[in-house]
Q: What sequence folds into this?
């Protein structure tokens, strides 16, 4: 952990989870934020969605339980729950929060998959608690009445309520559920219709409330394909393309859309409350918006024209409280060593250069007309990345500015192109070091 106003003696480190080198992790400055806090179990985030597979090893340690009940088939503490269930369903006849679609499980993993355990990836808030609230009926559809009831329940038990869903129509009950809980933060997705929600509203995004944040999907600094936008109703963007997260059955998968942008913001809000539990909803919301990165291609498309920055939100919250903001981790200091030999012409020591930072491939590549396009993201927020990327015998040199990304194109041999390869191994070299990543291929 990083105490306020101190500087760590090492650079921001990624946990040992194999899928954590995704572009979104560095795009929202998650490693820097994790140097400050990785979350607190007392902060509960409700995932109002299609249910969550809480048997997943990444989610089971962070599952919410209703500790006020006894296993007697009764509601002992009057909170509307029977026994020690781990979630609740609206529109079902039971409290079964199984997730056959995988949507809610994917969202939950982005919020709070357990980090640093060597499994899959990590959510934004590694140790925060997940409360699943299933508002979809068995046919995969939901009603506004079920949604409003689920929101009410979620707000009674969680500090942050994530709503990765949308509807072109609303009801009084949905807006009233938000207004009735001013001490809860509702984080909602803007939707994926490729439209301006100011002229074609999307709910709950278009609900005007001071305790709601609406999030659009970003793709490497630009609006994602088919992402909704709105200069007043949509507050900011967050990464939303090919995000790898938890899937039912202990698996992982990659999904795209603002449904998966919203949980990155919900997880950031949970991080802020883990760090400063006494912060108000207004303070946390303002910090998330103030700490975001202003990007030219989002200007006029959201209220902030910005993309989420978790570390920036922590700094903004500290500044608003009159505290000294946390300092970004620094690269390791160059190590001084003895002269190369006794006959060296100078007595000055030889200085070892810090290792070159890696570039990380996006989890999805595109194959068209025999050319494979892989987007590489510089894994450092302070130093440029340079090296070589290799795919199926083809190699390309790369040089990428700190925190930026660029496309690398590889012309494949005809035999590979004809197979419509489903996955490839991308080897990235930086200096004398080498790392290999598995990337899914989409043929177009």
A:
């Amino acid at each position: 952990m990083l105490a306020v106003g101190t500087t760590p003696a090492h650079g921001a480190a990624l946990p040992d989870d194999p899928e954590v080198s995704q572009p979104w992790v560095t795009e929202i400055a998650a490693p820097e934020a994790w140097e400050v806090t990785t979350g607190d179990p007392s902060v509960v985030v409700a995932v109002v969605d299609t249910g969550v597979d809480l048997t997943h090893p990444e989610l089971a340690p962070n599952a919410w339980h209703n500790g006020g009940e006894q296993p007697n088939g009764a509601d002992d503490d009057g909170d509307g729950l029977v026994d020690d269930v781990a979630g609740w369903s609206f529109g079902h006849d039971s409290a079964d929060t199984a997730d056959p679609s995988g949507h809610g499980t994917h969202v939950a993993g982005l919020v709070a998959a357990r980090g640093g355990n060597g499994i899959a990836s990590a959510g934004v808030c590694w140790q925060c608690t997940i409360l699943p609230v299933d508002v979809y009926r068995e046919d995969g559809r939901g009603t506004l009445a079920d949604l409003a009831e689920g929101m009410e329940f979620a707000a009674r038990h969680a500090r942050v309520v994530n709503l990765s869903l949308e509807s072109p129509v609303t009801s009084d009950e949905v807006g009233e559920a938000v207004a009735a809980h001013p001490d809860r933060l509702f984080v909602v997705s803007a939707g994926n219709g490729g439209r301006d929600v100011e002229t074609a509203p999307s709910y709950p995004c278009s609900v005007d409330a001071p305790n709601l944040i609406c999030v659009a999907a970003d793709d490497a600094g630009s609006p994602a394909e088919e992402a909704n936008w709105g200069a007043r109703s949509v507050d900011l963007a967050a990464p939303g393309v090919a995000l790898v997260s938890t899937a039912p059955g202990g698996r992982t998968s990659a999904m795209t859309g603002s449904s998966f942008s919203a949980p990155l913001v919900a997880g950031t809000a949970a991080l802020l409350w883990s760090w400063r539990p006494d912060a108000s909803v207004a303070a946390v919301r303002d910090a998330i918006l103030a700490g975001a990165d202003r990007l030219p291609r989002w200007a006029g498309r959201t209220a902030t024209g910005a993309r989420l920055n978790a570390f920036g939100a922590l700094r903004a919250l500290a500044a608003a409280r009159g505290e000294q903001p946390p300092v970004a981790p620094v690269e390791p200091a160059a190590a001084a060593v003895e002269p190369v030999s006794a006959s060296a012409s100078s007595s000055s020591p030889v200085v070892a250069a810090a290792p070159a930072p890696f570039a990380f491939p996006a989890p999805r590549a595109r194959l068209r007309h025999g050319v494979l396009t892989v987007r590489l993201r510089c894994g450092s927020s302070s130093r440029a990345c340079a090296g070589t990327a290799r795919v199926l015998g083809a190699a390309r040199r790369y040089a990428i500015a700190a925190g930026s990304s660029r496309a690398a194109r590889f012309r494949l041999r005809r035999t590979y192109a004809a197979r419509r390869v489903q996955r490839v191994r991308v080897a990235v070299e930086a200096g004398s070091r080498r790392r290999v990543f598995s990337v899914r291929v989409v043929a177009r």
